[in-house]
Every structure is written in structure tokens, then in C-alpha cells.
Amino acid sequence: MQRHFVLKGVFVISAVLICGISLFGISLMAHATPQSRVPVNGQVPPLVSHSRLVGAASSQQQLQLSIGLKMRNEQQFAALLHDLYTPGSSRYHQFLTPQQFAAEFGPTQAQQQQIIDYLRSQGLTVTQIAPNGLLIDATGSIATVENAFQVKINTYQSGARSFYANASLPTIPDTLSSLVLSIGGMDNSVRLRPLNRQGQAKAAAGGNGYGPTELRGAYDALPLIQTGVQGNNQTVAVFELDGYKSSDINQYFKNNALGTPNISNVLVDGYDGSANEGAIEVELDIEVVGAMAPKASQIVYEGPNTTQGVNDTYSRIVTDGKAQIVTISWGECEAQSGNAELQTLDGIFKQAAAQGMTLFAAAGDSGAYDCNDENLAVDSPADDPYVTGVGGTNLQLSGGNYGSESIWSNSSDTQRSPKGSGGGGGVSSFFAQPSWQVGPGVNNQYSTGKREVPDIAADADPQTGYAVYCTVSAAGCSTSGNVVVGGTSAAAPLWAGSLALVNEYLQKQGKAGAGFINPALYKLASTQQPYPAFHDVTQGNNLFYPATANYDLASGLGSPDIYNIARDLANGGSPGPAPTPTPGSSPTPTPTPISSPTAVLSPTPPPASGPFVKNGGFESGSASWQEYSAAGYELVDPAHPHTGRYGAYLCGYSACNDVLSQDFTVPAKTTKITLSYWWAGRTNRTAQSCVDSFSVLLLDNNGKVIATPQRACNNNLPAGWQQRTFDVTKALSSYAGRTVSVVFAARTTATQVTTAFFVDDVSGTIQ
Questions:
Q1: 3-state per-residue secondary structure call for 7-52
Q2: Is the pLDDT of residue 233 over 60?
Q3: CB-count exposure of residue 568 (10 Å: 0-12, 13-18, 19+)
């Protein structure tokens, strides 16, 4: 024992000596050889090379930095995005939540901490970390930033404009090079502009501009509006870099009999929400969305017009994950944005697509010359493959309906650009052409293998502009409030509101919402459909690119026929093979994919007393029930019935969204209405939090929840079959003579560990 102890002591002493020598050597090396640094490419603002150097910027000026981080597992994420939008894939439309994206693809906590530690070691203050880890905000003086990234920040002059910017590429320690994507905020050379144009609508609605009636008639939204499809249960996020007057919005809704607006605000990076010179853009966006989808909820995200403000506002919209649709009417010339910033935004937009969000962005108001010079260029963010770029047209009506369209262009309007004004479009110089951008006209004489813009179009010419209500004097609005506005910034919210209608229609047909819609739009245009989805614009040009049959670089696929798009998407076929559910220890069934959506049934008025639920034991299959399964399953299944041969089998697969419902009419007179059913559940989850859920709902004919008799989770499942009975008389007392729905709904997260729910022997009685 003594020998072992001595040897151990000698070993410890030797180790200490060796460590001391090593540390001394490392210390000498550190003093002799500075830590290797690498440049962050794409970080010199393009405007610097076209500007005059004035001198060094004030060293004490404070900068607000936006550090972009690289995504993890990029190859796996690219494969996931492909599968999410490929019909037939087992992951088709199984969208991620913001939390799932952050956990699987965002930088790890340790990676984020490496960046944070470096920033703090250089004297910078870290002020915010995005929930997905892709953005880290920091602040510090110009002197501190110059030292941290070994750059020189100067003041420059470009025409009448003065700005500050870094003169060379910033550098970072090579240990961080695999993590850092961009360092935004070292310059203020780029300031996004609202893409609207005020004008006189000479040919539009007697010179007063198009309002809801004209827009709905022109783009075939009335068949949906008249049947109650008005954006119910849909949320549109409105990206803004200015504020607005809520009284203006209320007045617009009142003037046009649109009901009460459902609008909330999210202020980003300390923006105070005040209405300034860009307020007309904000009010235009909100009002046009409301014109098309008055019942849709709108969340207006308002941030400062800085690199940090822009990035954080986009990021907040996506990481909040509350909206299915986003409208963006602010943009900047792609060539002036800088490649690093384009990559940073691309990561945010990819996450949006993975979450099933569509982002509509105005394609620009300077025609094919978005940099407002004589060089061909496109607008950011409409140039991004994960954004839907919206071009501009001149719309003419005929008897209140669609008449004709031509490309918006006006070579004599040189207020902004020497070439004139018009709907933006062209070929990106940065992004590759996405795999889904195919179809007649896409491969044309101007094609280079890069992303082509726009994807679609709508009215944007100020001569056929939109009737807007705005009284903000700082924005140039009149005291009367009546303003006519054009620009592709009006076309983008028109499409956003239209998609809210389409999504509601799809859901009422037992279909999922469209998600990121670009692949579906190009499929509609390149394959035979029951109904023509687009008005093909074949007249005019956008100052360079001509309109042609099919796709072109001036109008994209064309303008929308909203009702036809909704019906075509609803008839789009099944998503293809689905995974096999494995609900705990129960026998594994072989599901039968649903080949087409079950028709919506017309409810039969029930008798004054007796049963109102038909085929509650499911022995007649799915008769009398409406089914929806995100993976295409037949929900009536023999795997686990309570009695008889069949029962309802919900979920048991990853990213499940299964719904089983039946409509009935509440009788005019009744003393008691009772709903009863048997249910069970099985899970192989060990988590004690509510991750997978089962809900029993009563809905009105607009899809609004009347009551939720039951909600259960993976963490409170019964040991076996359990009967539940509810007296729903009070809940339905005000619905006499009206159609309501009994709904069984289940959802699970996108993991291999999952939960299944079972329903059988459903009965409803009226006394």
C-alpha cells in the first residue's frame, strides 16, 4: 500500500510540473503568436464602393449590432424542407413548431455562449438572444466595435446622403468562424423603403380607388365571402417599420362595413409604435388585408428601420409562430443588401417555411431596376426562395368583375428611379433557382439558373390604385382621410388576405392549410387543374421584361382567381404514403390512406327527442362522419374498438393532426341535450408535460368553439376504456335551429415517441 501511495504522489507532482511547463509554454506562444483570425465574407456594404470617403466616424457613437449565427444540421434541414413540400413524402406538411426548430437546427446553448463570451470579452454588451439562437444582439461604441472586429468605420457621402460603414471585412477568431454568419449593424447604408406609390386613380371606381367590393369582384373572392369564408380562425402577421393610427383602421372598417377589426400590436426592439412618415404603408397593409379577409386576426409587428430592427422583427414573427401568413411591403435592392445579410434573412425565412408559413413580399416599384439606377436588379426579400414575391399590374374592371390586366410600368414617373416606376421583377444575382420553380415560361431567354422574381402579381398601378383611409399628416395623408395608393406594397397584402380565405376554405373541406405556398402555386400553373387558378397577364412590360403567355419576369404566374385556387388546392389529391402508427402496445394496424376528402355532409334536423349522433359505433365505417388526417389515414379502424368491429383511431404517428366530426341541427325546443362516448389512450412517452393532446369540441358553423367538454393529454390517460357523459344543454341553448359540430381532435408532436387516442360508441340524445 505504501509503495502505491508514494508512486501516486510522484505522479501528481510530475503532472503538476508538466502542466506548469505546458502552461508556461502556451503563455509564451500566446504572447509570441496572436490568435488566428478570419474574415466574415460579404460584410462590406456595396454602397461604399460607389461613395466618397468623408473621414473617420465618431468613435463614441453607439452601434446596435445583429450577429447572425449559422444553423446546425443544415443538410438534414434541407432534406426536411424538401420532404415537407413533396406530396407522397411521409413528412409532407408535418410542420415544425418554433421550439422544435430551435431544438433540432438552432445553434446549441454552448455555441451561443461562445459568441456571447467573445462579445463580452471585447467590451460589448449583449442585449438579446433570439429564441432560435440565430441572432444575438449587442451594443457598443464604434471604437469598441472597431477593436472587436478589427475594422475601420468611416463616414461616406453618396449624393445628398451621408452614412457610416466599415471600410473592410470584419474579422473574428477562427474558433468562431464555424458559428458566425454575419455581423450586421456596423453601417447604416441600407434603410428599407416602403414599396407604395400615391397617385390619382383615374380609371378606378370613378377615381376613388378600388375598395373591398371591387377587389373581391375582380379576383373572384365573392363566392367565398358570401358563404361565410372571411378569414375566420386565420392569423396574418404584418411586418412594419413604422406605426399607425388605430382610429384610421377603425374608420376604414366602418366605412366599408367590414365589422370590428381584430388587431394586436407587437413592438420590437423598443419601438414606440408612433405613426410617422411610413404610416401610410402600415395602414395600407392592414386595410387591404381586412378588405379581403375581414375576420382574420392581424398581428402588426413594428420595429425600428435598422439592420438590427429588421432582423429582429422578422425573427420575432417567425419565432412567435402565431401567424400562418405574413405580408411584407418594405424592401431594399438585393445588390445593396449585402450577401451576409441576405444569408441571415434566408435562415429566418427557411424556418418560416418549415413551420408552414407563407411570406408575401412586394417585388418593388422601380420595375426591373430595383436599385434605382440603370442596372437590372431585384428586390429583397422578394428575391428569397422561401418568400413569395408579388409583382404589379394595372387592373381594369368590367361590370364590377375582372376585365383585363397589363403590367404596371410608367417610364415618365422618375421621382424615384431614372428608368421610371413599375412592378418589380427579374433574376436574382445571389439565390439559386429553387427546385419548385418550374413550369411553362420559367425557362426563358433571361434565365441564368438563379431565382426568378416575381412569383405572382396583383393590381399595383397608382392609376388603378387602392382606396385607403389615412389621416397621418407626417405620412402625407389628407385631413379627409381618403387617399388612393398603389405599389406592389398593396399587392402583397391583397395576396395575404386572399390566402387567409383559401386556408379557411381548405380547413372547412377537411384539408390542412397551404403552408409555404410557392411549390403549390407552380404546380397549379404547370399541371391541368379543374379551374383556372390565375389570370395570365400577357400585355406590357416592367420597363425591361415583357409579359408573355404563362410565367414571365414581369407578372410571374399572373394574378389570382381566389375561388379557383381554393377549389384546386382542395382537389389536390392525397399526400401519398403515410407512416404506420404505433400506439403503445396495441396491435399495429395497416392504415388505409384516404384517397380524397370526405364530402361535407348536410345535417338532417333531428327529432324533438331521441338520438342525434348517427353511426356512433362506427360499424358502418365513416358514414355520417367527416374525417381529416394529416398523414392521410382512414380514422375508422378495426385495431382497437370498444365494442363491435370498428372504432375511431386518432394519431399514433409523428406530427399527427387528426379530426373526426359530425354535424347536427339543434332543435328549436329541447329540455336536455347529452353527449356521451367511450375513449382510451396509449402512449410510450415518459414526459410528464402535456405534449400530445385529445380534445372534444362543439363548434358553430363558422368553426368557432362553443364548448370544450373534454381535453386530455399524454400525461393523464385512463388505464383502459372510460365513458364520459356531458350535459351540453346550456352550451347549445342559444343555437336553436342552427347547425353545430361534434368534433374529436388529436395532435402529437414530430417525434418518434408518440401517443394514440381511441373513440367509440358515441351517442347524443335530445329530450
A1: HHHHHHHHHHHHHHHHHHHHHHHHHHCCCCEEECCCCCCHHHHHCE
A2: yes
A3: buried
Q: Which residues does 265 contact at the CB level (< 8 Å), separation at least 6?
A: 273, 299, 300, 301, 302
Kindly report, residue by residue over 103-154, the tens digit of the pLDDT. 999 999 999 999 999 999 999 999 999 999 999 999 999 999 999 999 999 9
Cα gap 724→207, rounded to integer Å:
62
Work out the angle between the directed axes of helices 562-570 and 518-526 (0-180°, nearest 10): 90
One DSSP character per residue, 374-389 reads: SS-B-EETTTSTTSEE
Question: Which residues contact residue 735 at a Cβ distance below 8 angstroms, ignoring those fewer than 6 apart?
Answer: 666, 700, 706
Strand partners, 696: 710, 744
* 500-519 confidence digits (pLDDT tens): 999 999 999 888 899 999 99
Give the model's pLDDT for residue 89. Answer: 85
pLDDT for the residue 34: 53
3-state DSSP call for residue 265? strand
> Do 484 and 201 touch, CB atoms closer than 8 A?
yes
Which DSSP symbol is given to 249? H
Chain region(s) in the chain for CATH 2.60.120.260: 610-766
In DSSP notation, 652-721 reads -STT-EEEEEEEEE--SS-S-EEEEEEEEEEE-----S--SEEEEEEEETTS-EEEEEEEEEGGG--SS-
CA separation for the pair 759, 761 (Å, rounded): 7
Give pLDDT, residue 487. 94
User: Angle at CA 386, nearest 5°, toward 116 and 512?
Assistant: 110
**Residue 228: pLDDT over 90:** yes
197-198 and 125-129 beta bridge pairing: unpaired
In the structure, what pLDDT confidence band is assigned to residue 15 with cuts at 50, 70 and 90? very low
Supply the angle between the helices 98-105 and 339-354 in degrees, to the nearest 10. Answer: 120
Separation between Cα atoms, residue 317 and residue 310, nearest integer Å = 11
Q: What is the pLDDT of residues 705-721, one digit of tens each?
A: 899 999 999 888 888 89
For 193-241+280-313+323-570, which CATH superfamily applies? Answer: Peptidase S8/S53 domain (3.40.50.200)
What is the CB neighbour count within 10 angstroms for residue 485?
Answer: 26
For domain 610-766, give the CATH superfamily.
Answer: Galactose-binding domain-like (2.60.120.260)
The model's pLDDT over 695-708, given as tens digits with 9 standing for 90+, comes to 999 988 777 889 99
For the chain, give every residue range classified as CATH 3.40.50.200: 193-241+280-313+323-570
- Residue 202 pLDDT: 42
Percent of the chain at pLDDT > 90 equals 64
Residue 509 region, left (φ>0) first, then alpha (ψ -120 to 50), else beta? alpha
Q: What is the mean pLDDT of residues 379-407?
A: 95
Neighbours of 14 (CB within 10 A): 10
> Side by side, which strands form the sheet with 161-166?
52-56, 153-158, 161-166
- Alpha-carbon distance of 548 to 536, in angstroms, equals 8
